[in-house]
Specification:
The protein has 296 residues and is α+β, with helices and mostly antiparallel strands. The protein has 7 helices and 15 strands. The strands form 4 sheets. Strands 10, 11, 12, 13, 14 and 15 form a 6-stranded mixed sheet that branches. Bound molecules: zinc ion.
């Protein structure tokens, strides 16, 4: 059983350093049975290859000292802060557990009739208790698009990054936004880029996805292209700043007091993919140009 407490988990450190690898604390046996009995909600997460059944238990109503007794030396921390220090499979397990338990907290009452709901099917369904209603409610995932916009030009072109006022100082990242009802993913990409920066894009291509259960998003990553002379016209309600950056600019980000999103984010993956593609194209072009340098 993986305990959850006010959006926090318990973690065990592999060493004393602040950046030491962490493992999520999981409890078993009688301790786990007691936690399940006392939990506000329990979700069955699944059965792994060695036949161990995994559950998430929401212990938010517990006193902090009762929680601390579950694991000696375990640290209570938020998953978003800890996930870079976890093995991928364990970070994914906790993200799944957190997304499910947050969904339960937000769906205790029926969205149709307002009556209370009850968890069913190991926590994968909530059913309205109202005899006249009985509506089923399933965990939801909200699609959001995240996109790296590029334009052709000198130094291999440039990419469009923006920043929101609430982000850490100096951080720039890809644009992103939620998909609206009745909209395709590609339409959402073009609309969000247009609304936030006034830039028109085409050649929109899917690149990959990242679950973001904070509380219930799935980030769908895209590349999109703008014209060489595309100018930015900021909508200052969304973004504090947005600029075109060449690869050379990105290489000097640190010197200029700027920073990219964290290494395990899809935003960073989209940016790194763009940088790497040019490097490999550059090598190929060099090989074809019979000894001429790119500047010639
Ligand atoms: Zn209902």
């Amino acid at each position: 059983v993986v305990p959850f407490w006010r959006d926090h988990n318990l973690f065990l450190a592999g060493g004393p350093a602040a950046n030491a690898a962490r493992r999520p604390l999981a409890i078993a046996g009688e301790t786990a049975a007691a936690a399940v009995r006392a939990a506000a909600e329990v979700v069955m997460l699944g059965v792994d290859s060695d036949d161990t059944a995994w559950f998430a238990a929401d212990l938010t109503d517990w006193e902090a000292n009762a929680l601390a007794a579950l694991g000696e030396g375990a640290e209570l921390a938020e998953l978003r802060r800890m996930s870079p220090l976890l093995a991928t499979a364990e970070a994914a397990l906790l993200a799944y557990a957190r997304g499910m338990l947050q969904w339960h907290r937000r769906h205790r009452f029926c969205g149709v009739c307002g009556g209370p709901t009850t968890s069913r099917h190991g926590g994968h369904l909530r059913v309205c208790d109202g005899a006249a209603c009985g509506a089923d409610h399933f965990p939801r995932t909200d699609p959001a698009v995240i996109m790296l916009v590029t334009r052709p030009g000198g130094d291999g072109g440039a990419c469009l990054l923006g920043r929101q006022a609430r982000w850490p100082a100096g951080m720039f990242s890809t644009l992103a936004g939620f998909v609206e009802p009745g909209e395709s993913l590609e339409e959402a990409v073009a609309r969000e880029v247009g609304e936030e920066t006034g830039v028109r894009v085409d050649r929109i291509r899917y690149r990959g996805s990242q679950p973001w259960p904070f509380p219930s998003s799935l980030m769908l990553g895209f590349r999109a292209e703008a014209a060489a002379d595309a100018e930015i016209a900021l909508d200052d309600e969304e973004l504090e700043d947005a600029r075109w950056f060449t690869r050379g600019d990105l290489a000097r980000f640190g010197e200029r007091g700027l920073r990219l999103p964290r290494a395990d984010s899809i935003a960073r993956a989209l940016i790194e993919e763009w940088i790497a593609a040019y490097e490999s194209e550059g090598v190929a072009a060099k090989a074809l140009s019979s000894g001429k340098t790119r500047d010639e």
